[in-house]
Amino acid sequence: MDGSQMLSGHFATGAMPDTIIDIRAIDKSFTVRGRVVPVFAQFSCAITRGSFVSVIGPSGCGKSTLLRLLAGLDRPTAGAILFDGQAIDGPPRGMIAVFQQYAKSIFPWRSVAENVAFGIDPAVKLSAAERRAMVAEHLELVGLTGYADHWPSQISGGMQQRVAIARALIRQPEVLLMDEPFSAVDAMTRALLQDLLLKIWRTRPITILFVTHDVDEAVLLSDRVISLGRAPAGLQEDVAIHLPQPRDQIETRAHRDFIELRQRLFASIFKQEQSK
Hints:
Elements: E1 6-7, E2 10-11, E3 19-32, E4 35-48, E5 52-56, H1 63-70, E6 78-83, E7 86-87, E8 95-98, H2 102-105, H3 112-117, H4 128-141, H5 157-169, E9 175-179, H6 187-203, E10 207-211, H7 215-221, E11 224-228, E12 235-240, H8 251-254, H9 256-274
Parallel strand pairs: 5-10, 5-11, 8-9, 9-10
Antiparallel strand pairs: 1-2, 3-4, 3-6, 6-7, 11-12
Helix pairs in contact: 4-5, 7-9
């Protein structure tokens, strides 16, 4: 049985009880200028509840397409994706996405607090005081206490991405989908945002699926890394990350296992890019 049929002990046709996302033999293709371009072919995968899974792979392998399928923004050509045992046929409650282009995802005409408050589930009835308290809690969570009344144009790009994360988390999702969320910021801001995300994952009951081009970032953050092969090859690597917790930007990156994992995963992707 190959890796596309069984990942970390989860079978596509009978996922374990702690599976929150079950991808069952999906096909996905696009039509480009009259030509069918396959992205996934009989791709299967199961994601454990509460895990932090990074998705990496060469350009064009389908990383962002996979997140769009999970978010219900697109549909597989064949097969099914289940969230908590229910087939995804549109954006599911309990799952929310944070994208790379934070400047386009938050509203420039709303204050920081108003942007975060926009994420509150309208089905949840709260008083004005409860809403303010909930917003304040999430601003504190992402390190933005004191910036509630600022406009997006008055804060840095890293802060804007923190606003987007707070707005997603205030929805109380079970699953947070993140599509290269830190790729547009400088290296120091990226490290700080990575640490913030790890703190959130440690302190909240949430499953994170994180798409990135950065192998180092994937190894640093995750407890599992899925490396996709060139489309429509599917799964290339499925690696459990057993580095010590909590992770540290200096010590973790110097750890022997970090270096070995980074080299293994980078080499796999680099060889595929070379073979274009």
